[in-house]
Amino acid sequence: MIKAVLLKIFREGVGGLMAFVSYIFSPRKVKRDADAQKLANEKAASMSMYQYFACPFCIKTRRTVRKLNVPIEYRDAQIRGGEHRNTLEREGGKIQVPCLRIDDGENTTWLYDSKAITAYLNQTFDPTAQASDTASV
To answer: What topology is assigned to 2-135 in CATH?
Structure first.
């Protein structure tokens, strides 16, 4: 019991420190013209990120979202019995973070792996990746 409590305190402390350092050394945001930013904002409106504040994988995905300059809604899934945690379990099928929920109108996709989330966001919102995709065609 004491060991579990000490481990939780250590994990929360290190995670909080990582979040603080990540905030101080935030990546630079992508610059877009007004029309491109409006389009990115519209795409991002159908997305939400379920996350824990101090989770290192969640910090990684938050840094990607910040770098790509997209307004994705963050939902705290850490609170036991909380609305977002219950939604994640009920609709997503499991409690695992980070999780990107993508609503395309008819279907909802739940991406659970931080690498998959980062790859999806880069493919969808990174103007340099999109330019290289069209140049290679």
So the answer is: Glutaredoxin (3.40.30)
